[in-house]
Structures are given as C-alpha cells and as structure tokens.
Write a structure and sequence with these properties.
The complex is a heterodimer of chains A (197) and B (476). Chain A contains eight helices and seven strands, in the order βααβαβαβαβββααα. Chain A is of the alpha/beta class and 197 residues long. Chain A has a seven-stranded mixed beta sheet, with helices on both faces. In chain A, strand 2, helix 3 and strand 3 form a beta-alpha-beta unit. Chain B has a five-stranded parallel beta sheet with strand order 5-4-3-6-7, covered by helices on one side. In chain B, strands 17-16-15-18-19 form a five-stranded parallel beta sheet. Chain B has a four-stranded parallel beta sheet with strand order 11-10-9-12. Chain B is built from 16 helices and 19 strands. Chain B is 32% helix and 16% strand. Classes of the chains: A alpha/beta (197), B alpha/beta (476). At the A-B interface, helix 4, helix 7 and helix 8 of A face helix 2, helix 3, helix 5, helix 10 and helix 11 of B.
C-alpha cells in the first residue's frame, strides 16, 4: 500500500447513517478479477440512473464535491458485506480518507490493509464539519497521520484515534503479509504443537 | 488444550487463547486458522497477489473451495453461464485451485453448495476451530462453538500464504436470551428481534455469545441462522457453546473425527463452554417469550417490526438522522408512514441463502405451503443451500410440495440473496426473502426486500401479502 503522512483535500458531505458496502459498490461489479478499476462504479445506484446518466442531486455529481478526496458520512459506515471492493472503489475514485462517527469492523480492517484512512470523530464534531461544508462548499481538510489530527484553515482541529500499529503501517506503507512472514518460526512452532484431540 | 488459569474464561477467551501464534502489544495478535473456506467472488485478487509475490498456499489441507455466489440455479444454465464475467470468475477459481492444489467442490459435485451450508454439513466446521472465509456471513460457523470470522480479500491472501490472520482482540458480549420461543416463532425472528433491540452497530467491535433456554432448544439449523445474522448487528463473530445437540449433528459427517479420535474430540469440546462467572465486556438480556414473527420494513436489517405491527412514521425517529433514514427508507420501499405490514402485497418470494437454505428451513416452509397454492401474482423460488440439502429435501418429498403449490424448485447457490447470478428482482418488485440483507438494490436495482422466516415467506406466497403465520390454516 501507499504510505500516507498528511493529506489535504476537498470534503464530500454524505450525511447518511449505515452506508452499506452494497451501496458503495453494488454486486454486479464484483465479478471482475482485478483489484483496480472499480472507481467508475462507486455508489453506482446513487450516482447514476438506470440508463447510466449522472443523477444531478447526488453529492458526488456536484461541484466542487466531484473533486473531493475526503468523505464525511454517518455512523456505521461500511456495514454489510465483507467485499474489499468497497475500499478499492473508494480509493480508485480518489477518496483517501473517510470521516464518520463509527465504522463497521470488516470495512475498517479492509481499509487499513489498503491504506484508506478511516477517521472516527464524535457526533458533535461531525455535526460541526457538516455545518462548515454546508456553509462553504469549497471546504478542505488536512489530515495528519503523524499527529493524528484533522484540521482546516480556520484553526478548527480535532484529534482522532488510530492504534499505533496501524499508524506505523500507514506511515510506512507496510505490506501485512511481509510483516507476518517475519514470524515464520512462531507459526512453525505453533504447527508443531500436539493435536488438541 | 486451553492453558490452565485461575480466572474463569468465556468460550471466546478459550477459542482465542488457543489460537494465538504470537502477540506483542501494540501489534495485533497473529491467530492460527484451522479452516479456510473459499469461493469465487472474494479470491481471484488474492491468488493473483500470491502469484505476483511468488508465494504458495501454506496449508492446502486446511483450505476448501466451492462455487456459490455466481452459480445459476436453473439446471440447464449451470454449465453454460451466459454472463462472461461471472463465468470468468468461476473459471479463475478452478484454475487457481488446480494450480495451488486446493480441493474444490465444483458445480455438479455432491459437496457443492453455499460455503456456510457445506462447511457444517461436511463436518469441516467443528467446535474449537477458527474458521475464516472471504464472506461476512462466516459468523454462521460460530453455531458450533467455533471462532468464525468474515474477512476481506487481502486477508484471504494473508491466510492462504501464512495460515494466520492478524486480529485485534474484540470485546466480548453476552446476549442472554430469556424464556422460550413461542409457537410459530423461529431462530430468524429471534435474530431479527435481537438486531432490532441492539441496533445494526450494537455488536461492532464485539464477539457475541448467545446463551439461554431458547438457544439450547434450537436445532443446529436454527443456531446457524442466528449466528449467521450476527454480522447484521455489526459483530464479526457470533457463537453458541457446543452441547449434545452439536455433537449429535456432527457425528458421522464426512470429515468429522471418527472412532477413538471422536471420543477425544468430544471430551475436548466439553471443556469449551464459558466457565461460571466468566467476565463479558457487555451483557444484553433479550426476552424471547414475547417475541412475534418479525418482518423488516426498511433498507437496513434493524428496520423491522412484528408482523402485527406497522411501518413507522418519520416523526417516530429519535433524532434528525433517524427521521431522515425513516423517510428515505419508506420512500425507497414505497410504504406509507404507519402502513400495517400485513397490507403489503408481495411479487416475489425467495426461500434459501446461507441464512435459511437448510433442511429445517425448507421443512418449515413446506409445512405451511402444503395443500395451498402460490398466489397468482407471486413468483416463488425455493433454492436449497447445497446439493446435500437438495437431495435430503427431495427424499422427503419437499420438492413435490413446493412444485405442486406452484413454486420453482432450483439448484443450490446463493441465488436471490445478492443477485450476482440471474436470479434478481425487477425495479419496484417487492420480495419476501429468507435471506439476510434488505439493503437498497441488494436483490436487484430498485428491488424491495423484506426479511422474514421461511414459514412467514411461504405464508406470504400463498396469501399474496404478509400474514401472521401463527394463524395459518395448515393442511397436513
């Protein structure tokens, strides 16, 4: 995965709770055998009508949000299916950070592995961010993975939690399998234990 | 064996501790995986990753493959798949299994079926095991007292390469089910009721253990339905302590321990249930005795009500976000605020999936539909969860009951649960489904899904609308 130290980008407000992975990337696009190329299908049924025309009222079809890279959303983002196509689609569409009150577990780990940063902020701070972007749509945030802060140009800032291992992996772009392979002797020792029955 | 310790442990603690290969804070623990089930949708990129890095599959003997998500359920279409991309995905799994030496239960094989149906019925899923699969409904296998975790494709690749999984230890949660399930109320209603109470993120970050009189009384098929739906409350794992019901189910299954090893296995499995006084990070009580057949009205599994109830009104929402969610869901589902659920007519009925595609589910639906006929405006699909379920159901004559009632009797696969195969809803169609997700478009763009039990689905097929199966006119 690509390392990330800081990221600055346009905010996209998607004020919905329980955004499930079926919405992020509908099932008809899961049949491909590649990891890339899912961006055009991100939020397909919300972004496009049945004939493939953009729906003008969907936030990602409007200026300036169509150029955004930081998605704001409601709680329990990424619930549902384990499809890793969800973070793949978000990243392929240029979204590198999702900020929400909470994330579903599998989506959260899939995102971490791919270097999609999930920032969990309390509802009160989420409300502030949604209000700011409503007041001035060309709203940008800067996320700093070293200091674990998210901030804007007006001086607003918030700390966010990230366990130190995930932080280390993201800062250095580390491959999960490579890390585990360094524990080869521990795996061998485990496999050499007597059977449980 | 579990390490002797003074502190009482939960079932989850025992499963976790027995599988830790390595752990050092602040890194996640490295867990050993005893069973890895794979299917066509979430593996192509994992195998590609192995190839690019020159890695092998570490334990082909602990890896088992099948095809389920994309497989057409009409016999004539199964070997001649019209969708070229779906076909390529299945071909790719065949090639990958052959190249890396993994056993594959392919289309037409007696072992083929939905991953979460075949693992248990083949005796691959056993108490005390860690089970993973690139599918969120892997929580199903927890019904056996296994630690079963749904994973993403990169994690599939990680398990293929190392037979381990990096995991942060989740918190533990006890769902204490009080009382017995009333007549006509099933494990599906229990699961939907629990999700309704704790919310679709109520289990996030937790591994759930279900316990109580109603749980002990459930068959293994019922327990699998309940554990299957754990993920719909946000919990990656849900589990039930193994007991005599569990052992009786497993005994004699193809890959289950035999002879003296069986005796040793049962002795070990008896050590797994939570010790008295073991600590849970969270305890939730759920009253089963007052439960009714349950129906979802919205676009999230927590948006549900008893069949005797009504859809909510936006003003019922506790805050602005909830009000907006209710408005959006009612609009998508084409339901008037406050509309009674029994007033909703259905166009399609789907019985099947990893949630409710097992023999007991088909029996429950058949018992309702026997001697009746599917309503003239309803199309009903019955899709057994596996070849084995299909064969058993046919040996009991269940297929005849469904066919005589005007339903379609299909070949095993995921079918209409997620519509990755030809079985999908048309825009605007309303479906009573025994599956697990009522998300927008899940069963087909613009489709409207209501989650119910198999008996409730069968009753809706006959009545043409939702109806309380507790008042059913059984013709036995």
């Amino acid at each position: 995965m690509q390392p990330m130290r800081t990221h600055r980008g346009q905010v996209i407000p998607l004020d919905l709770a329980n955004v499930d992975t079926d919405q992020i990337i509908p099932k008809q696009f899961l049949k491909r055998i590649e990891r890339t190329g899912y961006g055009p299908f991100l939020f397909n049924d919300w972004r496009f009508d049945g004939d493939g025309n953009p729906k003008p009222n969907f936030v990602m079809n409007r200026e300036p949000f169509k150029h955004g890279s930081i998605l704001l959303a409601g709680k329990n983002f990424g619930c549902g299916s384990s499809r890793e196509h969800a973070p793949w689609a978000l990243m392929d569409a240029g979204i590198l950070v999702v900020i929400a009150p909470s994330f579903a577990d599998i989506f959260h780990s899939n995102s971490a592995i791919n270097g999609l940063l999930t920032v969990a902020l309390p509802q009160a701070q989420m409300d502030e961010l949604f209000a700011k972007v409503a007041a001035s749509p060309k709203y940008e945030l800067t996320v700093n993975v070293e200091t674990l802060t998210v901030s804007d140009d007006s001086g607003w800032s918030a700390k966010f939690p990230l366990d130190s291992f995930r932080q280390h992996c993201l800062l250095n772009g580390l491959d999960q399998i490579g890390i585990t392979e360094q524990k080869e002797q521990f795996i061998k020792d485990y496999e050499a234990r007597p059977a449980r029955y | 064996m579990t390490t002797p310790s003074a502190a009482p442990k939960t079932l989850f603690d025992k499963l976790w501790d027995a599988h830790v290969v390595w752990h050092e804070e602040p890194q996640p623990a490295l867990l050993y995986i005893d069973l890895h089930l794979i299917h066509e949708v979430t593996t192509p990129q994992a195998f590609e990753g192995l190839r690019l890095a020159g890695r092998k599959v570490r334990r082909t003997d602990l890896t088992f493959g099948t095809v389920d998500h994309n497989v057409p359920t009409v016999k004539a279409d199964r070997f001649n798949i019209l969708d070229p991309i779906a076909s390529q995905q299945m071909t790719s799994l065949r090639q990958n299994c052959a190249e890396f030496g993994i056993h594959l239960a392919d289309v037409g094989a007696v072992e083929q079926g939905i991953v979460h149906v075949i693992g248990p019925e083949l005796g691959l899923t056993l108490p005390g095991k860690t089970v993973v699969c690139g599918d969120s409904h892997t929580s199903t296998h927890g019904a056996f007292g296994a630690l079963a975790i749904g994973i993403g494709t990169s994690e599939v690749e990680h398990v293929l390469a190392t037979q381990t999984l990096q995991q942060n230890r989740p918190k533990s949660m006890l769902v204490n089910v009080l009382g017995a399930l009333p007549e006509g109320v099933t494990a599906k209603d229990l699961a939907l009721g629990i999700i309704h109470q704790i919310g679709t993120d109520g289990g996030t970050g937790h591994a759930i253990e279900y316990r109580g009189q109603a749980i002990g009384a459930l068959s293994m098929d019922g327990r699998m339905t309940l554990c299957n739906l754990s993920i719909e409350s946000g919990a990656r794992s849900g589990m039930i302590a193994p007991d005599e019901t569990t052992f009786a189910y497993i005994k004699g299954r193809k890959y289950a321990p035999k002879g003296e090893q069986w005796d040793r296995a049962v002795a070990y499995w008896r050590t797994l249930p939570s010790d008295p006084g073991a600590h849970f990070d969270r305890v939730v009580d759920f009253d089963a005795s007052a439960l009714q057949p349950w129906v979802t009205w919205g676009t999230s599994p927590g948006m549900s009500a008893p069949v005797t109830g009504s859809a909510p009104r936006p003003e019922d929402g506790k805050n602005e976000i909830e009000k907006l969610s209710i408005t959006r869901a009612l609009e998508y589902m084409d339901i008037a605020p406050g509309q009674p659920l029994t007033a909703l007519s259905v166009d399609r009925v789907f019985i099947g999936s990893c949630t409710n595609g097992r023999l007991e589910d088909l029996r429950n639906a058949a018992r309702v539909i026997k001697g009746h006929h599917v309503s003239s405006h309803v199309q009903m699909l019955v899709v057994p969860g596996s070849e084995a379920v299909k064969k058993l159901a046919e040996s009991e004559g269940l297929d005849r009951i469904f066919l005589d009632a005007g339903a379609e009797w299909r070949e095993p696969g995921c079918s209409m649960c997620l519509g990755m195969n030809p079985d999908i809803l048309s825009p605007g169609q309303r479906c009573a489904a025994t599956s697990n997700r009522n998300f927008e478009g899940r069963q087909g763009r613009g489709g409207r899904t209501h989650l119910v039990s198999p008996a409730m689905a069968a009753a809706a097929a006959v009545a043409g609308h939702f109806t309380d199966v507790r008042d059913w006119d059984y013709k036995e």
